[in-house]
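Whiteboard transcription, Tuesday session. T.W. wrote the structure tokens on the left side:
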């Protein structure tokens, strides 16, 4: 066992240059909150990387800080032999990741991407979630986590929505980002295609609409979740088949977008 541990540690290639190409790629993927040109997502933290392993993602490279090297032996056996494993000085590692208190491990992992048509045509039952302008990464991460928990068919990300590959979204999703069917879409095109498939369009609203316990949410349904402050714009609201509201005390103006979406998803799951 000790020899296996030493062999795993021996896989680590030490890199000290700030301008090393793969270190720059990691830094840029985090700072831009987008995938690399090869379709890889920058992720950080032991738990998230273990979720990526559990989800069957393939790693291009895994980075450890010097201070985290003793913990590398636990993670390395889970990572495929094809992945490059890199050891960085603590200061260099910290400069490449967004966390204020880095755990000492990060990675570039190839994530699954889907088209609008793939999501709509997938036979999995459950509601669609359409995100129209949610900007807080914690909210989007929560929505993705709830989408998986309550059996959503998929999640469509419309214009003005925070990137799903923002490091805070990845962390808040607790790994659901790697498993939920996700597509970035133009909302006008998505609405046309959903209508062509007979999918009902339902939107959450703060103070008007059918109270959630009375809403009929069985069958094929798409739940639209709007911007935290402004909600759905009027043009989109006019295209909905139904507005629903979650009853709450009037002194609270509205619910958090992630909380509201989670409550609606639970009710859809209960009805279906």
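and on the right, the sequence the group agreed on:
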């Amino acid at each position: 066992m000790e020899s296996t541990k030493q062999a795993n540690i021996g896989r680590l290639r030490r890199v000290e240059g700030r301008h090393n190409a793969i270190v720059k790629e990691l830094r840029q993927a985090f700072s831009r909150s987008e995938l690399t040109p090869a379709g890889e997502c920058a992720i950080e933290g032991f738990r998230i990387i273990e979720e990526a392993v559990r989800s069957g993602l393939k790693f291009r490279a895994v980075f450890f800080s010097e201070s985290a090297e003793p913990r590398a032996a636990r993670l390395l056996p889970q990572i495929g032999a094809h992945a490059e494993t890199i050891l960085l000085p603590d200061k260099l590692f910290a400069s490449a990741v967004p966390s204020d208190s880095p755990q000492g491990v990060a990675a570039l992992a190839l994530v699954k991407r889907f088209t609008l048509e793939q999501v709509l045509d997938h036979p999995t039952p459950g509601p669609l979630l359409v995100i129209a302008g949610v900007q807080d990464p914690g909210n989007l991460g929560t929505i993705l986590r709830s989408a998986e928990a309550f059996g959503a068919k998929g999640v469509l990300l419309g214009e003005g929505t925070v990137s799903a590959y923002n490091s805070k979204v990845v962390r808040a999703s607790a790994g659901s980002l790697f498993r939920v069917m996700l597509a970035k879409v133009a909302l006008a095109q998505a609405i046309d295609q959903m209508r062509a498939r007979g999918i009902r369009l339902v939107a959450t609203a703060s103070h008007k609409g059918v109270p959630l316990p009375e809403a009929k949410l069985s069958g094929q349904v798409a739940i639209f979740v709007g911007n935290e402050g402004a909600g759905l714009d009027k043009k989109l609201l006019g295209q909905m088949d139904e507005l629903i509201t979650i009853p709450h005390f009037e002194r609270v103006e509205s619910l958090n977008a992630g909380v509201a979406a989670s409550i609606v998803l639970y009710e859809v799951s209960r009805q279906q």
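Someone added at the bottom: The chain has two domains: 2-110, 116-271.
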